[in-house]
Design a protein that fits this description.
Subcellular location: Secreted, Extracellular space, Apoplast
Largest sheet: 5 strands, antiparallel
GO molecular function: manganese ion binding
Oligomer: single chain
Protein name: Germin-like protein
Function: May play a role in plant defense. Probably has no oxalate oxidase activity even if the active site is conserved.
Number of strands: 13
Mean pLDDT: 88
Structural class: alpha+beta
Main location: secreted
Helix content: 10-25%
Length: about 220
């Protein structure tokens, strides 16, 4: 029986190792296209034939320009990822610019597929992340000024808030071509269809009427 178990483990390893190797990029780059009719290789997205790639596939202009801030949270995130810079496909990296108005914030959120490293270009930000349940939900927080850097580990809830007396700007690199974003308040109170208020009332220890009011605020 022990020899059979050992053989079974070896068999599983033999099956999984080729899959792991296949996930690595097998070419210099893979410029993403939206339909297979325009591509010949598949590696993450459908890939443009490398012979047809141009410099424009790896270029994005205008990230130095300030973005307008006119929403409830007082920030504007400009993402540069595989969806608007197709040359990033399979390269495992992306970047964002974040503009913060006075008292603006990038509210608590997570990136399910990426670690983030943030650099403050202008202003003063209060930033932080919260560890997982198993680590006791500890808060790690810092006040950042121009030139300061802070790291948010993959998948953990984190935030930035402008606590200065002027608008702020930050740039962040993320370890995925498409890191994803899950904003906690929007997800919990703005889901479609809405989560049963009684479920949220018990989870947050609130009156169901308060939950319903919050869901109305985040209704899409």
């Amino acid at each position: 029986m022990k020899s059979l178990s050992f053989l079974a483990v070896l068999s599983l390893l033999a099956l999984t190792i080729p899959l792991a190797l296949a996930s690595d990029s097998l070419q210099d780059f893979c410029v993403g296209v939206n339909t297979p009719a325009n591509g010949v290789f598949v590696n993450g997205k459908f890939c443009k034939d490398p012979k047809l790639a141009t410099a424009d596939d790896f270029f994005f202009a205008g990230l130095h320009n300030a973005r307008p801030v006119a929403n409830a949270v007082g920030s504007n995130v400009t993402a540069v990822n595989v969806n608007n810079l197709p040359g990033l496909n399979t390269l495992g990296i992306s970047i964002v610019r974040i503009d913060y108005g006075l008292n603006g914030q990038n509210p608590p959120h997570t990136h399910p597929r990426a670690t983030e490293i943030l650099l403050v270009q202008q202003g003063t930000l209060l930033v932080g992340f919260v560890t997982s349940n198993g680590d006791g939900n500890r808060l790690f927080t810092k006040t950042l000024k121009e030139g300061d850097v802070f790291v948010f580990p993959e998948g953990l809830v984190h935030f930035q808030a402008n606590i200065g007396k002027s608008p702020a700007v930050a740039f962040a690199a993320l370890s995925s071509q498409n890191p994803g974003v899950v904003t906690v308040a929007n997800t919990v109170f703005g889901s479609v269809p809405p989560i049963n208020p009684n479920v949220l009332a018990r989870a947050f220890q609130l009156d169901p009427k308060v939950v319903t009011d919050l869901q109305n605020k985040f209704k899409k």
